[in-house]
């Protein structure tokens, strides 16, 4: 990072925690963000080196008719076979990290959010001045995953097992946002936290 780069604030939360909703309101407040999930999709776009290697390893079933990655098939492979998940992470994580750094360096807001479901697991919290953890009850996470991704409860629970537990994430964070209520409540909490961060940056 260069001296002119903005302060990086990590936004950590497991799948179904509401990271997108929280990020959207920070964006409305003028704060730019880099989302690791968006970057992860970018690095496996058609004709990318990563997708070519994934295709080579798993065959045509890993692609949809339009040539894009079949995420449902890939998810089933890596959650049932831990060694395959390790292979995939070894392939994609360095490329994702490089792209994240490039996007962070291109931001201009007073601070920037690094939105990442695996912020601590990938040690990218080391890039951040502070980390915000989103706290949400596990049962709410599971229902959101089932509804959004159209998967079974068993599949949703398998996904959560691969991620840091909420209580562990909260222990490591500097700020906590509870997200068990409605959007208006969440926005009010985000605004208060945004003002607190701005004040802290002036100290």
Overall description:
With 203 residues, this protein is α/β, with parallel strands linked by helices. The protein has one domain (7-202): Rossmann fold (3-Layer(aba) Sandwich). Helices cover 54% and strands 13% of the residues. It contains nine helices and five strands. It has helices spanning 19-28, 36-42, 49-58, 71-80, 82-105, 138-149, 153-161, 166-172, 183-202, and strands at residues 7-12, 32-35, 111-116, 130-135, 175-178. The chain has a five-stranded parallel β-sheet, sandwiched between helices. α1 crosses α9 and α6 (138-149) crosses α7 (153-161). The chain starts with 6 loop residues before the first strand and ends with a helix.
Features:
Rossmann fold; alpha/beta; five-stranded parallel β-sheet; 203 residues
CATH architecture: 3-Layer(aba) Sandwich
Order of helices and strands: EHEHHHHEEHHHEH
Question: What percentage of amino acids are in beta strands?
Answer: 5-15%
How does the helix and strand content classify structurally? alpha/beta
Radius of gyration: 18 Å
Number of domains: 1
Individual helix count: 9
Helix content: 40-55%
DSSP E strands, number:
5
